[in-house]
Amino acid sequence: MTATIIDGKAFAAKTRQHVAEYVSTIKTERHEAPGLAVVLVGEDPASQVYVRNKGTQTVEVGMESFEYKLDANTSQSDLVALIEKLNADPKVHGILVQLPLPPHLNSDLVINTIDPAKDVDGFHISNVGLLGTGQKSMVPCTPLGCLMMLRDHHGSLAGMNAVVVGRSNIVGKPMAQLLLGDSCTVTIAHSKTKDLGAVCRSADILVAAVGRPEMVTGDWVKPGATVIDVGINRIERDGKMKLVGDVHYESAAKVAGAITPVPGGVGPMTIACLLANTLTAYCRAKGLPEPVGLTA
Ligand code: NDP
């Protein structure tokens, strides 16, 4: 068997187009646009690239982009004051604080200062609780992107056995909650899971979010399963730097029914879902119907 490739790059482009059409209608009818504020503290090179990409794509879909680049030594109170200002700003519908923050700042406190209705990363404790109890929330972007691709590929996920490898708060746990919300039978695996290969082989849907290059090999994949590879790992191979996932693509693609590649799978969907979440936050703030196909 050779797996169908789930093209995250193309799906992300389609999702951005969908968002852009909504934004265009909002601009025509309401003479305003959803706004996303991104806050970066310090000069971490990877974070700078992410923030730049977020800003560019926000503008490309017609939204307003507000960027705040703060010095690495910014105090907790100054950062909190900025977030409170953005919470009160009617032009800002989504707020994202780029993580990781420098070590002297308390990330939990900072994230929980964001108005939950503007928390487009879905990390505020209120949104975590709402998602966990199956209520309307802002959903973390990476697992939302995975869910959208799975729904697009399968239609209904009800009754499928899903295994999520990884239990982080930003990927593994919310991914499991979303799959449960779509009536999958969900197993969460982690570093202490016994016989991980056997657990993975039970999955109709296998999501790998571990941060270990190519850990999930083809012999862990049930024939015909759908494999979602969240991992982004930079490794050196044949003297060159290369991006690989948490799944060993070549062997897994021979067994799986469908698979996301790295790069070009889950990664592009993350920013697309950030834009979708900003649009959703705008619609909720204005009492408008939620955008179709862009929420959990
Ligand atoms: P974390 O390091 O926060 O969590 C990793 C999880 O994997 C932990 O729950 C850990 O278990 C588990 N794990 C680690 N080693 C093993 C192992 N040998 N066997 C089984 N489980 C293991 O990572 P994140 O969730 O933040 O990210 C996971 C991956 O996804 C990374 O590669 C990251 O770069 C990528 N990522 C990609 C994004 C995208 O946009 N595509 C966005 C966010 C992340 P335990 O809890 O027991 O320690």
Instruction: Return the CATH class of the largest domain.
Output: Alpha Beta
What does the main sheet amount to? 6 strands, parallel
In spatial order, strands of the major sheet run: 1-11-8-7-5-6
Shape, principal axes of CA atoms: globular
**Portion in strands:** 15-25%
CATH topology assignment of the largest domain: Rossmann fold
Structural class: alpha/beta
H-E string: EHEHEHEHHHEHEHEEEEHEH
Q: What is the CATH superfamily of the largest domain?
A: NAD(P)-binding Rossmann-like Domain
Q: What's the total number of strands?
A: 11
Radius of gyration: 19 Å
Distance between the termini: 31 Å
Q: What ions, cofactors and ligands are bound? A: NADPH dihydro-nicotinamide-adenine-dinucleotide phosphate
Count up the domains: 2
Count of helix runs: 10
Low-confidence sequence ranges: none
If classified by CATH, what would the architecture of the largest domain be? Answer: 3-Layer(aba) Sandwich
